[in-house]
Here is the input.
Amino acid sequence: FEMIETYKPTVLINVPTMINSMIEFPGAKSRDLSSLRFSTSAGEALPAELYHRWKETFGVEVLDFIGSAELYHGYVSNRLGEVKPGSLGRLVPGYEGKIIDQDGKELPDGEVGELCIKGQSAGLLYWNEYEKTRKTFKGDWVHTGDLFRRDKDGYYWFMGRGGDLLKVGGIFVAPLEIENCLLAHPSVKECAVIGAADPQGLIKPMAFIVTKEGVNPSEDLGRAIQDYVKSTLAPYKFPRWVKFLDELPKDDRGKIRKRALKGD
Here is the structure.
């Protein structure tokens, strides 16, 4: 806050974890962010709930987008005056996109599949990694490994990494969907959802939660949160276990390290 108030930047480069931390900072609403034209968000998904809390707190627009090292640039982005909270926006000019199934068939709007991007900024290969190159760079298309759906207006919605999906009772479940639901609960500050095996060896969702200041973790709160998810999403998606933490493990960019939660 001090840096913004002192040097008056017009654009803030941000990530969802820091966005949440700034909102939760004591006295956040009284801080002067009036120099900002907008903030960007990248690195991980920006939940609609977090977007709205930021706007209500600071009144500054947030443009969520996605890019990658493989394309050296952002290729899907929201635009000023055209933001759809929860989405990553539309294709950046100069890029083409398609969503495909596991057989490489292009999918229609509304269906979930892997996002592939074509653009002249695309890389050629991974140095000394033949197999990874072969799976990622196919002709002019870069296979991102990210699962998306595209709506009828051309907005792209992130559904998780291909390897992140959980198969619960024979049905695929995106941890991100459960996380977004949890973040809408009034007691939840941060959360992460992974898959864990039950006594029969079947994979079920498990939630790690950091509560908001002044909220005491308890078994009753855990059950209330489970009931909240059951009543909001399809019942089979609720986390079978809720574990409260003082903080979630994060990397140097503020991204939650789910492998650490899995014990990898």
